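Bit of a strange request maybe. I'm writing a small parser for structure token strings and I need a real example to test against, not something I typed by hand. Could someone generate the tokens for this chain?
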Amino acid sequence: MKRNVFFSFVTLFLLVLTHDSFAQKVTLESLLEKAVSLSESGKNTELAEVLKSGSFALESEANTRGNDFKDKLLGQAGALKNLIPLATEGTLKTDVLSKVVNTIRLLVGANQINNLLSEGKEGLLGNAESLTGSINLLQLGKAVLENKQQDKLGNLLDAVSGTVKKLDDEDTGAKIAASSAKKSLGKIVDLVKEAV
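Reply from user aminoacidic:
Good idea to test on real output. This should exercise your parser:
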């Protein structure tokens, strides 16, 4: 009986943990979108709250597995916090906020890919959905880069998108896709490290 209660408790704990980490990812991405939308509508108090929540979510993202992007992510969390007084006063310009938001998108997308790459090819298998989400973030964020870097990143993202979709295949195709995607994803991570 005690053993069953213990296993039930452990299962419940793991479910909560999984839900929290999933919610954190969704929350950060949706907070970034909401912040830009609120700055355009002039809802200053709400915007300040969203920026505050976004900075906390970004600090959580900075403390996920790899440390390669930790300092840069924490730096952007600080940048979000610095925008809060401007948002409260109603003097935060949308283009200033968009630049910070797109930089965050680049860093978060690259960080998530880097975390999976740290496990080698095995880390990529079965993670097509997660990688597609990261690629979408990078596609949105690349607007902040210089034209040459923007084109280079865009080409890499377009090239790897099709391969990433095959990572959930049940046959040997997934392993071939993982070998092919690993190199391209590594180049994407390196480009963002240099550019941001």
